[in-house]
């Protein structure tokens, strides 16, 4: 859907109309997704290559996710699993962990903020598989 089409739908939608409310909520979520995808510093050339080759699927339960720490530049791969299956040694993060919650339903390119014990950290999602 083009940005012109979305703008027209926003303008013509009435807030008291159920469809108008749905359109406005969907447009707001799209705006938020774009804001998260453009947050933080620009991707490095290596990150941009990974993003370009990545399928554009959101992070879900059992997804394998490649992320980069925007402060240190370190990359890590994690799999998002239910709480009882988490094992940091295997790279399995619980869906209820701070990072797991932040990554859930985000797309490659998004920058997510995680409140870690050492303070707030920013991660960019580079690839989502599964």
Structure description:
There is one protein chain. The protein is 35% helix and 25% strand. The model has no long low-confidence stretch (mean pLDDT 83). The protein has a five-stranded mixed beta sheet. Helix 1 (3-12) runs antiparallel to helix 2 (18-37). It has four helices and five strands; from the N terminus they run H-H-H-E-E-E-H-E-E. The protein folds into two domains: 3-37, no CATH class; 45-129, Roll (Chitinase A, domain 3), CATH 3.10.50.30. With 130 residues, the chain is an alpha+beta fold.
Total individual domains: 2
Q: What low-confidence regions span 5 or more consecutive residues with pLDDT below 50?
A: none
Q: How many beta-strand elements?
A: 5
Main sheet summary: 5 strands, mixed
Mean pLDDT: 83
Q: From the alpha carbons, calculate the radius of gyration and give it in angstroms.
A: 17 Å
Q: What is the helix content?
A: 25-40%
The fourth-level CATH homologous superfamily of the largest domain is Transcription elongation factor, GreA/GreB, C-terminal domain
SS-based class: alpha+beta
Amount of beta strand: 25-35%
Distance between the termini: 26 Å
CATH third-tier fold name of the largest domain: Chitinase A, domain 3
Count up the helices. 4
Order of helices and strands: HHHEEEHEE
């Amino acid at each position: 859907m083009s940005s012109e089409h979305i703008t027209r739908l926003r303008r013509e939608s009435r807030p008291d109309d159920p469809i108008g409310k749905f359109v406005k909520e969907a447009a707001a979520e799209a705006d938020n997704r774009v804001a998260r995808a453009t947050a933080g510093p620009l991707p490095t050339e290596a990150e941009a290559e990974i993003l370009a080759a990545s399928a554009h699927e959101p992070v879900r339960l059992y997804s394998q996710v490649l992320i980069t720490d925007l402060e240190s530049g370190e990359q890590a791969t994690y799999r998002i699993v239910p709480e009882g299956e988490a094992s940091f040694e295997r790279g399995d993060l619980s869906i209820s962990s701070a990072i797991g919650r932040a990554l859930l339903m985000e797309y490659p390119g998004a920058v997510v903020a995680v409140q870690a014990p050492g303070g707030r950290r920013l991660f960019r999602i580079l690839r989502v598989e599964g």
